[in-house]
Amino acid sequence: MLGRLRLDEITHEHVSAGLLRLQENGLAAETCKRAMVVLQHAFNLAKKWKVAGTVDNPVKGIAPVHQPIRQRFLSPEEARRFIVAVAQE
Questions:
Q1: CA–CA distance, 48 with 89 (Å, rounded to integer)
Q2: At a CB cut-off of 8 Å and minimum separation 6, what does 68 contact?
Q3: Taking each helix axis from N to C terminus, what angle separates 12-24 and 29-48, rounded to the nearest 10 degrees?
Q4: Contact, 76 vs 26, CB < 8 A?
Q5: pLDDT tens sequence across 13-34
Q6: Helices first, then strands: H and E counts in the chain
Q7: What is the rounded CA–CA span in Å between residue 70 and residue 61?
Q8: CA-closest candidate to residue 22, choices 40, 9, 35, 11
Q9: How many Å apart are CA 36 and CA 12, to the nearest integer?
Q10: What is the CA radius of gyration of the chain?
Q11: Burial class (CB in 10 A: 0-12, 13-18, 19+), 10
Q12: How far is CA 32 from CA 6, 15, 27, 36, 51, in A?
């Protein structure tokens, strides 16, 4: 996603463009979000460990990838089990 860029060369724009490329390549929103979380954690650790070239976290401030709201209904069997569980409670 970031190629051969050094830590001090990676900018907010590089990260945003990389995440957009992941989405355009058909990756699920949750997968893109996970990539962003892992990258942010890596930069936080690099800063904590005082790795040369890590002044700021370029992932900081990037909005998470939008996930569509999903609607799901219980199947008749799931509804039956739910009602039984509520009655027992």
A1: 47
A2: 29
A3: 150
A4: no
A5: 999 999 989 989 999 888 988 9
A6: 3, 0
A7: 26
A8: 35
A9: 12
A10: 20
A11: buried
A12: 22, 11, 7, 6, 26
| Amino acid identity for residue 48 in this structure | K
What does the pLDDT read at residue 86?
95
| 58 and 43 Cβ atoms separated by less than 8 Å | yes
pTM (two decimals): 0.66
Is 6:52 a contact under the CB 8 Å cutoff?
Answer: no
φ, ψ for residue 45, nearest 5 deg: -65, -40
Structure token digits, residue 59 = 């992932």
> CA-CA distance, 89 to 5, in Å (whole number)?
56
Q: Which residue has the tokens 């650790």?
A: 45
- The C-alpha atoms of residue 25 and residue 55 are separated, in whole angstroms, by 31
